[in-house]
Amino acid sequence: MSHSKILILDFGSQVTQLIARRVREAHVYCEIHPCDVSDDFVKQFAADGIILSGSHASVYEEETDKAPQSVFELGVPVLGICYGMQTMAQQLGGKVEAGSKREFGYAQVRARGHSALFRDIQDATNAEGHGLIDVWMSHGDKVTELPTGFNVIASNDTTPIAAMADESRKFYAVQFHPEVTHTRQGQAMLERFVLDICAAKPDWIMGDYITEAVAKIKAQVGDEEVILGLSGGVDSSVAAALIHRAIGDQLTCVFVDHGLLRLNEGDMVMEMFAGRLHAKVIRVDATEQFMSKLAGVSDPEAKRKIIGAEFVEVFKAEAAKLKASGTGHKGATFLAQGTIYPDVIESGGAKSKKAVTIKSHHNVGGLPEQLGLKLLEPLRDLFKDEVRELGVALGLPRDMVYRHPFPGPGLGVRILGEVKREYALLLQRADAIFIEELRNTVDVETGKTWYDLTSQAFTVFLPVKSVGVMGDGRTYDYVVALRAVVTSDFMTAHWAELPYSLLGKVSNRIINEVRGINRVVYDISGKPPATIEWE
Length: 535
Ligand SMILES: Nc1ncnc2c1ncn2[C@@H]1O[C@H](COP(=O)(O)OP(=O)(O)OP(=O)(O)O)[C@@H](O)[C@H]1O
Ligand SMILES: O=c1[nH]c(=O)c2[nH+]cn([C@@H]3O[C@H](COP(=O)(O)O)[C@@H](O)[C@H]3O)c2[nH]1
Ligand SMILES: NC(=O)CC[C@H](N)C(=O)O
Ligand SMILES: [Mg+2]
Hints:
Largest sheet: 10 strands, mixed
EC number: 6.3.5.2
Bound molecules: adenosine-5'-triphosphate, xanthosine-5'-monophosphate, glutamine, magnesium ion
Number of strands: 19
Strand order of the largest sheet: 2-1-3-4-10-9-8-5-7-6
Protein name: GMP synthase [glutamine-hydrolyzing]
Pathway: Purine metabolism; GMP biosynthesis; GMP from XMP (L-Gln route): step 1/1
Shape: globular
Helix content: 25-40%
Distance between the termini: 41 Å
Organism: Methylophilus aquaticus
GO molecular function: GMP synthase (glutamine-hydrolyzing) activity
Number of helices: 15
């Protein structure tokens, strides 16, 4: 089945992924690719429309990225955002200059003319009755001369050409960012572009997607066997359910206990799957193996790479064991993972060369070059909310599908610096107390538990000691930090405003119940500039 699709060319903006999320929210399929793809690639992609992202660069610098010229020659609608607008202007014969003032944050622009992009979009009106739109800006440069064929479709005092369009060629461009939620009607604008202007069909719906995905998996796997890394998290559970639906007993799930899981997580995961997921699950205790490889290593990226490599070692060994088991298995030739689109993007997989890699996710950037198994990643194109939707459509229980995410490297990235078994055991107990209290404390205003009100919450172990007094004695023990965030996409996040009474109770319990920890702090950093995990 062929879907409508939008091509997003990434010039390196940190929020390119949000453009894709917004387009997907409109139920239109889209993909992000680096801005320097070839003209042939652009042609073959056969997009219904193309979106050019922002960037930190300036188009008048000596070596700058341009959109492949074919973007403007294929006769498909194009939307330029920020840098995307500037390069469109310059490539089509307009002019871009450095402004005297940077415009950063909220701004209001006045809509001009009757552009299809802003149809029925207005947040206020000015004294003369003109429509005003609230937007979010982040730029220093601006378009100062329109290319031929273009009109101004929005402006304000700082940026007279705040948006422009050549309606006949269906070229549109905005200096502001419709993809961030601060632009209140940004979603509506992107829908005008994608649904009205590009006439893309909103046919990307998870319930319908199952049939298509099942057929694809069947075709890819044939009669071979698959092992899947099952973590008990959302993504791999949904992947397991989907693959099992496609190939039944050809699938074996491998759940790896690397000794860096949450307290009792191993038993919980096995219990959760018994009866709920009909696939076979093997539990592997690899604590010793991971711990010995991690001994003496304190660099976060090095730890991530080691954990990624060890996962693969375990998977390979299990794949071989299947064959030797004498149970009629031929041995697995595929490794399935619950990799999702943000994992790919954040590890630099879809970004242009210019965007920096912040962390290597263990399952993407951390994979060794010689895998020896073919990869099967049926969720690789999906965002988290789509994966959850798919899980529900596959009949997985809601509490499984709405768990907080837990990173594959687990406590390995929540114990700062060198990982030691002793630290992991302390951290597990402190973390369990925090999560238990979040689950048990209901917010009176919303009637929801604080677990449901936060997107992710955990405890971090700091290998530093501080002095305390307990009873009448002196203590000299470790510190833990509590981290709880609210986010919809894990790209940006706010620290959760947990009630003091809850924080107080958690702190008390940890210090009283976990000998070896005598101080608890709360992390009040947002992302950016911090990240959610500490490593
Ligand atoms: N303990 C584990 N045992 C086996 N495979 C694992 C384990 N931890 C992670 N993986 C593999 O790595 C992939 C990526 O991990 P990630 O944490 O992103 O996804 P998840 O655990 O499935 O879902 P969630 O994001 O909700 O935690 C998983 O989908 C799974 O295939
Ligand atoms: O499976 C995973 N393997 C990893 O290597 C990894 N690193 C970060 N995360 C999760 O990604 C989200 C964003 O985290 P950061 O703000 O720390 O980058 C948060 O939800 C993190 O828990 C990972 N998940
Ligand atoms: N966010 C952007 O795309 C910024 C583009 C350009 N560097 C500017 O400052 O105007
Ligand atoms: Mg996980």
